């Protein structure tokens, strides 16, 4: 993950964001598409603070198994604590480019907001295919950051901030090529959809509120942005809210596929 590491502090921020209503709604969307059945074996690639992994473990029950996997020790510590009372849930250390599992291990694999950080997508999808059993199904969800609509008065400054923010990603527009990448990796693409994160107002627990904080911490010194520039960007956004003009929307695209 370039220039963006989930240390203990960052992992706690992500944990708070994932507890909010916007990402909770995204989890429900993902779970509805998966239709998990009791007894299935599931892999969550980039499981982060473990909310989705716990929900999937509850869905497959004690006759199934869920493995969450993440390269961040801080994230894994949070996830292990969250799922400590579920014996059939394990949180493993690992990387999307070298999954620490045997061939044909899982019935289902999920990756949400992960592959946009992975440089070698053919290799990552090859690993995904390797660990899925024949006929196993995969779900991938990632953001196209060109879909971000965020009302500001100073459009030039805002564009500089977002361009700097995209430096934390390898593939800020990954969904445009994901279906083709999956097909070239040998998968059959069975469905595509979109989940919109939409905040018509700024609330403390909204995704846009946490985004403001995370972006403001990341972008100073990038694209020529100073601390004063970032403070001005934040002030502009808060003014839009104070004037009743808050608008934030971004699209996350989901791809369903089956392994050969």
TrEMBL record:
Pfam families: Methyltransf_11. GO terms for biological process: methylation. The keyword Thylakoid does not apply. Residues 43-140 form the Methyltransferase type domain. Keywords: Methyltransferase, Transferase. GO terms for molecular function: S-adenosylmethionine-dependent methyltransferase activity. CDD domains: AdoMet_MTases. Gene3D superfamilies: Vaccinia Virus protein VP39. This is Methyltransferase domain-containing protein.
């Amino acid at each position: 993950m370039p220039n963006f590491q989930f240390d203990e502090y960052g992992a706690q921020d992500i944990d708070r964001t994932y507890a909010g209503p916007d990402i909770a709604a995204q989890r429900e969307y993902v779970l509805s598409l998966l239709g998990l059945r009791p007894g299935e074996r599931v892999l969550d690639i980039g499981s982060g603070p473990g909310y989705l992994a716990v929900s999937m473990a509850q869905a497959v029950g004690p006759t199934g198994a869920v493995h969450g996997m993440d390269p961040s020790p801080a994230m894994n510590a949070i996830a292990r604590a969250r799922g400590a009372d579920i014996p059939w849930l394990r949180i493993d250390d690992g990387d999307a480019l070298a999954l620490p599992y045997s061939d044909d291990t899982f019935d289902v694999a999920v990756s949400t907001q992960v592959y946009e950080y992975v440089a070698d997508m053919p290799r990552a999808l090859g690993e995904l295919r390797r660990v899925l059993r024949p006929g196993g199904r995969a779900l991938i969800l990632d953001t196209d950051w060109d879909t971000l609509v965020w009302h500001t008065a100073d459009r030039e400054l805002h564009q500089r901030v977002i361009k700097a923010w995209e430096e934390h990603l390898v593939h800020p527009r990954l969904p445009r090529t994901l279906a083709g990448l999956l097909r070239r990796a040998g998968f059959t693409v069975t469905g595509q959809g979109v989940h919109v994160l939409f905040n018509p107002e700024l609330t403390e627990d909204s995704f846009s509120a946490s985004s403001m904080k995370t972006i403001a911490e990341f972008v100073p010194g990038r694209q020529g942005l100073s601390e004063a520039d970032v403070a001005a960007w934040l002030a502009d956004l808060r003014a839009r809210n104070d004037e009743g003009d808050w608008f934030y929307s971004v699209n996350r695209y989901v791809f369903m596929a089956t392994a050969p």
